[in-house]
Amino acid sequence: MLLAAAAAVVMMCACSGERGYINYRGMSMGLPASKVVDSLQMKVPNLWLDTTKYEDHYVLADTVARNFTVAVYHQNDTITDILENYTATYNDSTSNLWQAMHDELEKEFGWPNMGKHGDLHKEATFQNDKGTIILTLLNTYSPTVTVRYSTATTPD
């Protein structure tokens, strides 16, 4: 009986030491990269897979609007980063998208570290013990919003 109790305590300690991961679109970044890519293709049917990039990352692109790509970077099917890229033809759309994403991430992670905060370039870094998210707005000739989800707990 005492041995069983001791084993239970050891198991609880071992489980509590497991690393948690941030979520990407409802999926843990601790899942295998191939599974996340398959799930993304099922959730967003307009995404096609660029099969030339399998060695270190998968690239999915939107076939309809052609303004969204996502790259899933991995090492041996273990996700290291996921990079989303949104492009638009005018600055207001990217500014609105950046603000909506910023507000949503702020609800989950709290106030970000704002590395840059201008009209043409904004960068917000959200981080916790599960990972880091860097949200970037570049309103130049080709307005873009990028979101980097990283399993690293400190930004590069």
Your description of this structure?
The protein has 156 residues and is α+β, with helices and mostly antiparallel strands. The protein has helices at residues 2-16, 33-43, 91-109, and strands at residues 23-24, 27-28, 47-50, 57-62, 68-75, 78-87, 113-117, 121-128, 131-138, 144-150. The strands form two sheets. The chain has an eight-stranded antiparallel beta sheet with strand order 3-4-5-6-10-9-8-7, covered by helices on one side. Strands 1-2 form a two-stranded antiparallel ribbon. A hairpin with a 6-residue loop joins strand 3 and strand 4.
In spatial order, strands of the major sheet run 3-4-5-6-10-9-8-7
Task: Provide the residue-averaged pLDDT.
Answer: 82
Strand content: 35-45%
Helix count from the secondary structure assignment:
3
Shape: globular
End-to-end Cα distance: 49 Å
